[in-house]
């Protein structure tokens, strides 16, 4: 145990040098350092860096209503005329958790095609997502001679809520942090709430605007007849069309059934046009590109509206078939608006409109104060620990102080390497591990003191001290490491931050207290031929 061959010494020194290099960006500005040097400092959490805290809810009624609205669009496609079947005319009416499909045109005998409508509805009514085999998403029953009632069962509602929560978290992350570098924290709360923490974001209203958009993107053919538009404005809308407006197009009649939808979009980004004005570029996937090409090929001369949340963003005229699936939206956007719209389009459509329950802005000043207080506390704490360790154990106490400094450096190096976020609970975890490292040193030194008092030589006392303390140190640290793993697995947000720093601190403290301190002790004993430690 007291043998330190050259390779082991080099390994220990290599770890310490690596730690200093990795932790360096936390102490000095490394932006102008050579390319091979690390430049990433530890990310600071919301409580240290400041930012926005938002708690939002997905109302179950909104989820059900949204799914029924989507199903109504599917019904329009299922009831539309095709080459081998007649259309079924109807009017959908949403009633909370149900939707009434009222058939509007009987046949020559005065009968409504309810049976045919039920068959078509059964084909588009898929199974419950993640549910048991046999369960359908919607319960569809006949309602009188000319009606069909579509409702949602409790099992289907639970599956819808679970699916909506998962999709909403994905979309929120894509909208708020499209590049994946903002270190936001998203935490589910219950079965329909989400907590968002965005460090460094100063404006909660911008986030709320970004997240309150549905993100429903469609490409619709346009009926541009002035007479039809005037009739629609008077309240008589051409069947199969809707009257929508845009800031640059004015009122237009767009076809209800879109030619291309948001799910056909593969990527979206902010760009610039020929005059260097912000625009939105996006690319369609293979299926969307095919539908886009066929639509532009078969409808030359017509307007083709690009609609976002029932607002016409653009309505260019089709002059020729457009292959490739690359599309752009130009307009009077600011750079921020174009970036936000691109993020909304790329993230996709929200499964339901979210409601904001709580919002807080954490001042960066509070974070700076916390960092400053933590820094002062660490300096004072380390100074007191160093004073008492040196006072109590002399030279061995100095070695213990070196190991504590090395321990802190290695913790910050590991946090920088992992890209972990440091929060106030994380700082508490670091302080706790420093205390455990001091405790490990005290255990070893007390054992050495006992062995020396029993008359053993310094070499025998040191070897026995480290051997007898090893089991106790490992037992305490392994138990705490298991607790940290459990906290990380079951906890969230700040609890995970505490668990990460605690786990890293345990590993580094065992290394510095048991390996680094022992190496210093043996080096001193061999160099100065020590006969006895003044412990």
From TrEMBL:
Glycoprotein among keywords: no
Positions of the SecDF P1 head subdomain domain: 249-352
A GO MF label: protein-transporting ATPase activity
Keyword entries, A-Z: Cell inner membrane, Cell membrane, Membrane, Protein transport, Translocation, Transmembrane, Transmembrane helix, Transport
Membrane topology: Multi-pass membrane protein
Domain annotation Protein translocase subunit SecDF P1: ranges: 166-223
Superkingdom assignment: Bacteria
Gene Ontology biological-process entries: intracellular protein transmembrane transport; protein targeting; protein transport by the Sec complex
A Pfam entry, by short name: SecDF_P1_head
Start and end residues of each Protein export membrane protein SecD/SecF C-terminal domain: 353-523
Classification via InterPro entries: Acrflvin-R (IPR001036), SecD (IPR005791), SecD/SecF_arch_bac (IPR022813), SecD/SecF_CS (IPR022646), SecD_1st (IPR048631), SecD_SecF_C (IPR048634), SecD_SecF_C_bact (IPR055344), SecDF_P1_head (IPR054384)
Entry's family note: Belongs to the SecD/SecF family. SecD subfamily.
Record's subunit section: Forms a complex with SecF. Part of the essential Sec protein translocation apparatus which comprises SecA, SecYEG and auxiliary proteins SecDF-YajC and YidC.
Record HAMAP family: SecD_B (MF_01463_B)
Cross-referenced NCBIfam families: 2A0604s01, secD
Protein known as: Protein translocase subunit SecD
Organism in which the protein naturally occurs: Hyphomonas neptunium (strain ATCC 15444)
Gene: secD1
């Amino acid at each position: 145990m007291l043998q330190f061959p050259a390779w082991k010494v080099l390994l220990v020194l290599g770890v310490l040098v690596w730690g200093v290099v990795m932790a360096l960006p936390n102490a000095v500005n490394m932006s102008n350092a050579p390319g091979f040097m690390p430049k990433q400092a530890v990310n600071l959490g919301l409580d240290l860096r400041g930012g926005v805290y938002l708690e939002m809810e997905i109302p179950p009624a909104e989820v059900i209503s949204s799914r029924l609205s989507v199903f109504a669009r599917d019904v329009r496609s299922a009831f539309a005329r095709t080459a081998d079947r007649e259309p079924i005319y109807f009017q959908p009416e949403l009633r909370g958790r149900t939707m009434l499909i009222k058939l509007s045109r009987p046949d020559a005998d005065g009968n409504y095609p309810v049976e045919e409508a039920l068959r078509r509805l059964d084909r588009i009514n898929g199974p419950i997502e993640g549910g048991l085999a046999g369960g359908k998403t919607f319960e569809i029953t006949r309602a009188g001679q000319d009606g069909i009632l579509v409702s949602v069962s409790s099992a289907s509602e639970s599956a819808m809520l679970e699916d909506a929560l998962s999709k909403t978290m994905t979309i929120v992350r894509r909208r708020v942090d499209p590049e994946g570098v903002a270190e936001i924290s998203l935490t589910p709360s219950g079965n329909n709430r989400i907590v968002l923490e965005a460090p460094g974001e100063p404006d909660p209203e911008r986030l709320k605007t970004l997240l309150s958009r549905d993100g429903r993107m469609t490409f619709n053919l346009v009926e541009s007849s002035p007479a039809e538009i005037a009739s629609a404005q008077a309240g008589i809308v051409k069947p199969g069309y809707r009257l929508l407006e845009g800031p640059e197009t004015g009122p237009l009649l767009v076809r209800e059934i879109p030619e291309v939808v948001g799910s056909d979009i593969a990527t979206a980004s902010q760009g610039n046009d020929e005059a260097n004005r912000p625009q939105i570029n996006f690319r369609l996937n293979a299926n969307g590109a095919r539908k886009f090409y066929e639509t532009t090929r078969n409808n030359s001369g017509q307007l083709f509206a690009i609609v976002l949340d029932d607002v016409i963003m653009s309505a260019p005229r089709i002059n020729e078939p457009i292959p490739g699936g690359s599309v752009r939206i130009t307009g009077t956007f600011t750079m921020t608006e174009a970036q936000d719209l691109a993020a909304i389009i790329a993230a996709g459509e929200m499964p339901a409109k979210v409601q904001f329950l709580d919002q807080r802005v954490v001042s960066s000043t509070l974070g700076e104060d916390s960092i400053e207080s933590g820094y002062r506390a660490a300096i004072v704490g380390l100074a007191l620990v160093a004073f008492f360790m040196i006072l109590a154990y002399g030279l061995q106490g100095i070695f213990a102080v070196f190991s504590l400094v090395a321990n802190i450096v290695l913790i910050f190096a590991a946090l920088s390497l992992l890209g972990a976020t440091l929060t106030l609970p994380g700082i508490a975890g670091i302080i706790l591990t420093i205390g455990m490292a001091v405790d490990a040193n005290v255990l070893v030194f007390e054992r050495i003191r006992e062995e020396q008092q029993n008359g053993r030589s310094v070499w025998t006392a040191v070897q026995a001290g480290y051997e007898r303390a090893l089991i106790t140190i490992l037992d305490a640290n392994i138990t705490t490491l298991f607790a940290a793993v459990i906290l990380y697995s079951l906890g969230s947000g700040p609890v995970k931050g505490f668990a990460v720093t605690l786990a890293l601190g345990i590993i580094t403290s065992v290394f510095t207290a048991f390996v680094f301190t022992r190496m210093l002790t043996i080096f001193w004993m061999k160099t100065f031929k020590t006969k006895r430690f003044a412990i």
